[in-house]
Specification:
mainly alpha; two-stranded antiparallel ribbon; 5 helices; 70% helix; elongated
């Protein structure tokens, strides 16, 4: 019986710090989100990532594939605008499906796979 109690105490001891860390992230999630928006570079040991460079690469790939980031409101059909008004989640999913279709067809034309 004492062995089981010791096992439970050890398990709780190992889970305490991750639980405190996750709780702090949840409590300060707005502040963490603001901080992450300002991060330009990240480095851990020998690994370094330049987020500005990565974002620019994604933008250039999107432009190369004919995907634009913004559209004038006149480019939307009346049914699209009604869909956004009544079910914005469904409109998002439909837009995402269109993006995936563009990436799949354009990516296969170039002989490389874009989506992993």
């Amino acid at each position: 019986m004492i062995e089981y109690l010791k096992l439970v105490v050890d398990l709780l001891g190992h889970l305490a710090w991750p639980a405190v860390f996750a709780g702090a992230l949840l409590y300060f999630k707005k502040d963490v989100a603001k901080l992450l928006q300002r991060v330009k570079k990240a480095k851990y040991g020998d690994i370094e990532i330049d987020l500005v460079e990565a974002i620019d690469e994604v933008k250039s790939d999107a432009i190369e594939l004919g995907i634009t980031i913004t559209y004038p409101s006149s480019s939307y059909s009346v049914s699209d605008l009604e869909l956004v008004q009544t079910a914005p989640e469904w409109a998002f999913l439909q837009s995402w499906q269109n993006i995936e279709n563009i990436l799949m067809t354009k990516g296969s034309d170039q002989g490389r796979s874009i989506l992993c």
